């Protein structure tokens, strides 16, 4: 798969994830938010709190296992800190780290609170 195909797959997955989360009552605050070299795929808000969402869209299920490893989790937490620093009104909101897995454009598998960092 070339870079253009990977990019199109990522955009498709993020749109599917946005549609899925919006249907569940979440409001999408940001897509592909960048803080320096770190990125948050989606940032959403619902009555429970703020959700930092990693979207993994793959053409085959084999590559999903372990796709949000410790390194990726640390990067998400660091990006979330930067996001909260840039949005002080949200600092007191409960924060969650979620993952959405999509295989071949099928229905997303949603893992709310996929991991809990030691600190934020």
Structure, explained:
With 120 residues, the protein is α+β, with helices and mostly antiparallel strands. It has one domain: Trna Endonuclease, Chain: A, domain 1. The protein has helices at residues 3-23, 70-86; strands at 27-35, 38-45, 50-58, 95-103, 109-115. A five-stranded mixed beta sheet has the order 1-2-3-4-5. β4 and β5 form a beta hairpin. The longest helix has 21 residues, at 3-23. It is globular, with a radius of gyration of 14 Å.
Output the keywords.
five-stranded mixed sheet, Trna Endonuclease, Chain: A, domain 1, 32% helix, globular, 5 strands, 2 helices, 120 residues, alpha+beta
What is the molecular shape? Answer: globular
How many whole angstroms does the radius of gyration measure?
Answer: 14 Å
Proportion of beta-strand residues: 35-45%
CATH architecture type:
3-Layer(aba) Sandwich
- Which parts are unreliable, with pLDDT below 50 for 5 consecutive residues or more? none
Number of strands: 5
Mean pLDDT: 89
Structural class estimated from helices and strands: alpha+beta
Helical amount: 25-40%
Produce a short descriptive summary.
With 120 residues, the protein is α+β, with helices and mostly antiparallel strands. 32% of the residues lie in helices and 35% in strands.
Summarize the topology.
Layout: H1 3-23, E1 27-35, E2 38-45, E3 50-58, H2 70-86, E4 95-103, E5 109-115
Parallel strand pairs: 3-4
Antiparallel strand pairs: 1-2, 2-3, 4-5
